[in-house]
Structures are given as structure tokens and as C-alpha cells.
User: Fold these one by one.
Assistant:
Number 1:
Amino acid sequence: MNSQKGMATLLVTVMLVVVSLLFSLASYKNVFYQIKRTQNEVEERQLHWRAEGGLECAIALNNHTPSLGVTGQPYDTCDTNELTLTATLLTGTQYLITSTFQKDRGQTTLYKKIKTNPRTTGAIQAISDLKLVGSYTIKPDVDGPLPDGKFKCVSVRYGANFFARGSVKVNDPETNGPYPGFSGQCGVDYATDTYAALNTWDADINAQDTPPAANGALELDFVKDLNMNPFESFFYKSRDEIAEVKSEFTVITGSVEATDEVNSAGVIVTAKRCDSKIKQAFEGTAGSPPTDKVWVEGNCDLVNGAGLNGLPSEPRILVVENGVMSVNGAAVFDGVIYHLFNSGIAPTADMTAAWSGVTSNVGMLPADMVKGVYFQNGSFRPSGGLVLDTRGGLSILNSGFDLTFVGGLNPNTPPQSVYWVEGSWNDI
């Protein structure tokens, strides 16, 4: 009996040891699983943070070299071959940055939207009344992509009355024209092509009545925008800060005198011609350094604009402030023409007296001189764009030209290139 009792005790002990061993094995398997799971989570978070580091590198690149554009940045410099960064245009100012980090057995892909400073689009922009007379061929600006991969082209953006007589043919934008890296086509409804003559006002060309509705020939690349604010969009400052804006320019006084003069050396000069004064300011005279920004105060008769033709093909801005502006010729200006009344409205109810002495307004109707503040005859064309910030006035293009819009001819650099779009990533 005593030996049997010992056997029972031994058997119970063995069973307890076996059960304990089974529990230990089960516990070890669970611990091993937890260890592997922890390792996987650590690896996943490492992939995540490396991918997020790619996003941070992307915005740093854009802020360091904004002139390259969001799609033109050297994203391959951000990390090794394990990181892939791409930028896709969503709208005219919004892009999607995709960051994918792949290593060994896993990968993580993160997305973030970034937005550039808003820019008012349009090869020609006007908050004055705008009258377009003649035959025009335009390679326009763009305002973002369409679902089919083509683009919303913008030839003319206007914020008041628009009159047109003649014809308009809009081609696809210039490669790299709207911005660096651009290559695309206008959407089917965003490229005006007036096979028949375009006429949006009464047959009586002298009539100053309210403009009738367009005849349906204009497509969506002619944009009516009652809320456009070209000053803030262009200079990145409010109108109250005009003195600060102006301090970055070489300021000269305008002129409507076109008479040649003979200097002390007996050489004929054209110092009184507005285009010659502008050219001298751009090139630098009397010890002044060359500049890419000239600000003209008062009336400016460019005559035939010949002085502007001789300038090097470099980005530049010409602002004419608080005066009428006129040109009659075929000059090409590689830059932006910005016509401004700093009060935002025409200075008087009748501008006729301001046109006294101007010689280049050939063909301008007396009735148009009442509100007229800008007039061009011939094929004068600013390739960087024409901005007519003269609310209450009338701008007249009595021309025929081929205008190829190139946004890179504007030397203005946005104060901040890009920033994250709130809500598209952790904002805390």
C-alpha cells in the first residue's frame, strides 16, 4: 500500500509538471507572437516616419527653390533609392505629394496636399472695361487640370464690361509657358476659336451703351471674375502697402513728349520719349545699376515702342501708375506690363484732357477718350502678361497679334512658395 501511494503521488506530480510544461509552451508561443508583432509595429512605424520625412523634405525643397515649380523639384535628392517622391497637379495652385518608403518586406505610402500662393490667372487681366478689336492668336495661361487630363485655359480674365470685335484663335499653351514643367492642352470648352467674326456690341461702334450679351462664340477661357484682385495677386501685398512695393522699383516720371533732342555732343537722343526713358532705366544710366523693375509715374506715350524692342530677353516688370498709357507699333516686351491707378478708379469723370499731346493713340475714338486710360494700336505684345488694374477706366486693344504667355517672364518671387493644406495630414 505504501508503494502504491508513492506511485500515485509520483503520477500526480508528473501530470502537474506536464501541464505546467504545456502552459509554458503556450505562453512561450504567445510571447513569441507578441515579440514578432512588436517588431513588425516598430518596422511599420520606421517606414511611416521615413515616408513622412520624405514629405517634410519635399516642402523644404519647394521653399528653397520656388522658381523650379512644385513638379520640377529634384525630389531624388531627399533620400536613398528606398524613398520615392512624386508631385501631381490637382488644381492651379494645389498639388498632391506622394511619399513611398520601401525596405525589405514592407512599404508605406503617405499623401499630403500642398498649396502655392494663389495667382490670378490670365494672359490678359482687366478690372477696367476692356475692348478687344482686331484679330488675335493666343497661347494662354492655365487654371488647373480637368478630369480628362487637359487644362482649364485662361486667355482673358475680366472684372467689368467686355467688348469684342474681330476674331480670336486660342491655341494650346506654350510648353513651360504657364509655369515651369507645364506640358498640356486646353480642354475642348476652354479654347475660343471664332471661325466667324466676333461682335459683342452694337453695330454703332461709337455707342457707349451697356454691352449686349456675347454672341456665343467665346469659350470658357474668357473668364468673368467680379472678385479678382490683381494687385494682391501680383505683388503679394495689399494696396495699403503700395509704398513698400514701389520701393523695389526704379521710379521715373512719365512723358508724352516724342520730340528728339540734340545733346551737347551733337548726337540726336530721345530722352523725352517714354519708351526711351524706360529703356534707360532698365539698362541703368548715370551710374544707376540695371534693374528688372521700372515704375513710371504719370502719363506714358510709348510712341512705337521701339526702345523696348532693344532690351535683352529677360524677365522684367513695367508699371505705369496714375496716367494714360498708349503705344502704336509692333514692339515685343519680354515681361509684364502692369497699368495701375492706385486709387482703384479713374481719377476724373472725363479723361479727354489727359490724352493731349499723346501721338500714339492713332484711331482712338473721341468717345473712348472719356473713360479711356489705355490704348494700343498695332501688334505690341507683352509676353509675360498684360494687367489692367484701372477700375472705372476703359482699356482698348485695337490690335492684331500673336501672344504667347510665358509666366516665367515675371521676376516677382512669392514670399512663401508652398504650405501644407490643413486637414490633409496631422496638423498638430
Number 2:
Amino acid sequence: MILEIRLTNFYSIKDEVVLDLRAANIKTQKAKSLSDNTITFGDTEVLKTAAIYGANASGKSNIIKAIRFCCSMIFSSHLNNNENTIFNFKTFKFKGFDKKPSSFIIRFISKGIEYEYGFSLTIHEIVTEELFYYPKGRKVKVFTRDERLGKDKSEVYSFGSVIKKPLDVADNTSRKTLYISRASQMDREIGKEIFTFFNEKFILGYVGFNGLSVERLFQENKAQLLKALKIADSDIQEIKIRKEKVAGKNINADLATQKLTVKDIEQEHLLVTTFHKSNPEVPFDLHTEESDGTREMFFIMLTILDIIKHDKILLIDEIEQSLHNKIVEYIVSLFHASSKAQLIFTTHNTHLLNLERFRKDQVFFVNKKPDGSSDLYSLFDYKDFRDTMDLEKAYLQGRFDAIPYINSSISNLKELMHETK
């Protein structure tokens, strides 16, 4: 369960932006009627979904991109043994921010315990890293790290009493590597707990991320998948999956000898076959005979059913891609009906902007500031916006910014057409 994410100096993000999933103290009748939109954790209410709106090029996708990068660092940084490694992200390019570190801080719940983890880095190396947790509701230090304090590991690191032989891990942690990743690799319990959360609970996209297997997900969720597709007005009543061998070529070019070798190989291909209600005897190949929307729904629902079943978190950019508005509403409703699953997504779908569906603190906006950086803020920040107002209309009118301002007057368009001749 995610409580809060903070990002600084990633892509178009210059100053710190905060995605806070802790529910605000909203006492209106409409908010009370949306009690299924939150999860209770102790004295804290946590949002199940967060919708992020913004104009094209405002930076909303950069927020998703930055979160994905930071999570992938956690489960892959221990593989960075090459001193020439350059981390695959960009800093804010103006005002000297390309020379400043970028930072990521996340507060989350794993197995009933709250953690606060963060790190900062340049494109060349880790600068700082820290982990705290709250085993009995009180903040306890696991470790802190600051590579600017010296060359000796004892100067760089400070430890609590949680990790056994912590300096052994530090001695095996380079400036290219996150300590928490190395601690997991070296079988330290809290390191494994953090690693497992990001690798197994924080799903960075539909199938294809986090090593999720289509075959495994299908075997575990077939009955629920067929029912979910039926609810979504699909006439698919049966799906079968099998692996088959496909002949292929492996081409290898040796630059030293300037020779090209070609070998015949066999690769396993996953064949997905659908059967429709109108004629259940006729098979359809999912990849070549079904629509883009049907293929999208197949993979989306496989992922979502697993996420909901195991109380995971899903991160999606442009949730409406290839999907009808009603299907997007259906997906959001599935998360609201879940026990503890969470969904963070960007969208242009203004039909979702309805206070019968979302609390005010579930709607976020990204706006491009005059200096080219991205700002993130919540509808809840607009204290004068009442629950009785038309949210979609207000957004499209530009009340919250975060929309493109287009001067499409006839005179402008005619001038454009004239200049293109």
C-alpha cells in the first residue's frame, strides 16, 4: 500500500512534487458516500485510486516515468557493476539542475508495517540513501547513507540495530548500487522485504512489467477473467492457451572476423485462442483475429485480477489507450470494489471527472509552469470548489489550469492555411 511519493529533479520535474495518497479530512455527505474509495490503516484512511490530469507535454507522463525508473533501480541496481554505467533518466535541463541530484522518497505499507525509503542520485552515481520504519508506530532508523561525507564506509553509513552485519553489505555496495538492493541480494531480512515489495507488489504496468507471466496469470484467473470480460460486454465465452514451437533464425555478426552466421532455432510461442458466444466452435487467434481493444482487455484484465486478488498497486500511463470510456470506468470501479488494491494513473478521460465517482483528494492535476517545469496539485487544494459543482465542466473551462489553451479562431486557421501554401 502506497501512502506518499515525492520526486525532485526528474525530466520536467524541477522542484519537489508530492503524490499523497493519504485521504484528506473531507466530511461532506458525498465523500462519506464514497467510503469504498479508501482503505483503513490504523487511524489513517488511504486512497485506492489517484487520477492525474494534464495537458499534452505538461509532464504527467514524466511523473509515471520517474516512479518507474526509481522502482526499477531498486530491483536492478545491484547488477550495475560497470563503473561506466550511466543511469537511464534525465534531470531538469534548465537553471543548472542538470548538475544537481535527483531524489525519490516513498512511504508505504508492507505486511502491516510502515516504511519510509528514499535515495538521491546523479546520472553517474548514488549520492544518498535512507530507510526508516515504524514497527510500533514510532520511527526507527534502519540506515542512512551519504557518499559526500567521506571515502570510508564508516563515515558514509549510519546504522540502527535492524540489519545484521550491516558493514558487510556496505563493503559490497558501490556508488552505482543501492544499499537496499545489495542487502536483499546478501540475504538480509529487511532488505528482502523492501525488494519484494517493489518487485512483486508495485506493478509498473500491464503484463510485461515485473516479470509477470501471461500463462501463470491465465491459469490462476481464468474463471474470473471470463466473468470480467462478460461484465465488460464481451461475447467471449471461452479462452484457451497453449505453447507451440515456432521455427526461426538466429543471426550473429562477428565484427572481428566480419563473418555472418545463421542458425535455425525453435522458439516457444504462446498461442491464445478465443471462442465467441455466437459460434462457440469457431476459434479466433487473439493476436491476429481479435481487435486491438479485445487484446488490450485480455492483458489488462489478467493483470488487474491478479493485482486485486493480492492487494497490489498498479501504475498506468494513459489508462484510456484503445479503451472505451465505459471500460475505463469499469476498471476504476474494480479497484474501488477491491479490498486493498491501488491504482495510480494518468488520463485525458474527462468523463471520469465526477464527484459521484471520485473524492476531491483523488483527482490530481499537472501543469507546466512558466520556467518549463511540472507542478502537481490536487483538486482538494481548491477549497472554494464545492461537491455540488460540475467538475468536468470546470476542468474543461480551465479553472484548474492543466489543459491546453488553443486559439483556433477562423482568422488564425485561415492564416495557418495560407502559410502552408
